[in-house]
């Protein structure tokens, strides 16, 4: 709720020249310290929302935080897919395609 009610309205109204995301995955569900219940798909959705709010504004993602390496990797993969304008399902498709390369 804070993201859609606070962050997005600021982004829409402020019109930044650059967006820098301190992308901490300690809020992810299952993190050893933060565990605020965010799923990898939620990170995807928040990233897409920023891109849609300011489609021509460059975005920098700086990794910080997150104390479950496997979970952080899953979350970062979803952020990367969002930045590349790929659907979340692309993750499974790419794994299947790579499996055929063996």
Can you describe this structure?
The protein has four helices and two strands, in the order αβαβαα. The chain is mostly helical and 102 residues long. α2 (40-53) runs parallel beside α3. The mean pLDDT is 88.
DSSP, total strands: 2
Beta content comes to 5-15%
Rg, Cα atoms, Å = 15 Å
- Please state the oligomeric state of the protein chains shown: single chain
Biggest beta-sheet profile: 2 strands, parallel
Overall average pLDDT: 88
Helicity range of the residues? 40-55%
Q: How far do the termini sit from each other? A: 44 Å
Strand order of the largest sheet: 1-2
What structural class results from the helix and strand content? mainly alpha
Tell me the number of helical segments per DSSP (H or I, 4 or more residues long). 4
Shape: globular
């Amino acid at each position: 709720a804070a993201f859609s009610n606070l962050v997005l309205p600021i982004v829409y109204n402020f019109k930044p020249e650059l967006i820098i995301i301190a992308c901490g995955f300690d809020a992810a569900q299952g993190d050893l310290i933060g565990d605020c219940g965010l799923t990898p798909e939620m990170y995807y959705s928040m990233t897409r929302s920023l891109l849609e709010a300011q489609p021509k504004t460059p975005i920098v993602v700086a990794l910080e935080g997150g104390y479950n390496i496997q979970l952080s990797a899953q979350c970062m993969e979803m952020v990367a897919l969002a930045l590349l304008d790929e659907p979340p399902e692309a993750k499974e498709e790419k794994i299947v395609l790579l499996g055929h390369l063996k």
